[in-house]
Amino acid sequence: MEGLGAQPGRDDGHGLSGRDEFELLLRSLDERAVRRGTIWCIGLTLTEHALVDPHLGRIVTPSLSTYLIPVNADVPDMDFSFIDRPDPSSDALGARGFGEVPSTGLTAAIGNAVYHALGERIRDLPITQDKIIGALS
User: Fold this and answer.
1) Closest by alpha carbon to 31, among 13, 40, 19?
2) pLDDT, tens digit, for every residue of 90-118?
3) What is the enclosing helix (H) or strand (E) of 18?
4) Is 117 exposed, middle or buried (0-12, 13-18, 19+ CB in 10 A)?
5) What is the DSSP string of 21-89?
6) Scanning 2, 13, 25, 93, which has the fewest C-beta atoms within 10 Å of its C-beta?
7) Model-level pTM?
8) What positions carry a catalytic annotation?
9) pLDDT above 90 covers what percent of the chain?
10) C-beta neighbour count of 28 within 10 angstroms
11) Alpha-carbon distance 52 to 63, whole Å?
C-alpha cells in the first residue's frame, strides 16, 4: 500500500494516512478508530465475501469458518497523521462524530492500485486471486 510521502513504485509494506478529523478529544481512541476502519476496508476489498440469495436477499454463506477476514499478518504497518483543529460549525467542543470516516476512499484506492498494476479494472469485490488471474488471461 503506497501512502502519502511514499516513493512511487516502492512497496515497503507501510501505509500512511492523513486525516482532518477536526479537534481530537482522545487521540489514542481516534487512532484506534482509524486503524479499525482501515482494516475493515482491507477486508471488504480483498477477502470478505458473503453469498447472498439474489431472490430473497438473505445471506446464505454456510459457515463463518470459511469467511475470510484480515488477521494481523495481512495488515501493513500504519502511521496516522491528524490535523488537530476545532470545527467552528460544531458544538462547544469543536468536535464531530467520527463514524466510518476512516474507510472513505480506501476501497477505491486499493482498486486503483490493482488497476495500475494489472492494466485491467476489477469491479466486483472482493478482489481475489482468481479474479486477478481471470483479468490477466
Assistant:
1) 19
2) 666 656 666 566 777 888 999 999 999 99
3) strand 14-19
4) exposed
5) -SS-S-HHHHHHHHHHHHHHHHHHHHT----B-TTT--B--S-GGG-----GGGSPEEEEEE-----TT
6) 13
7) 0.68
8) 100
9) 26
10) 8
11) 13
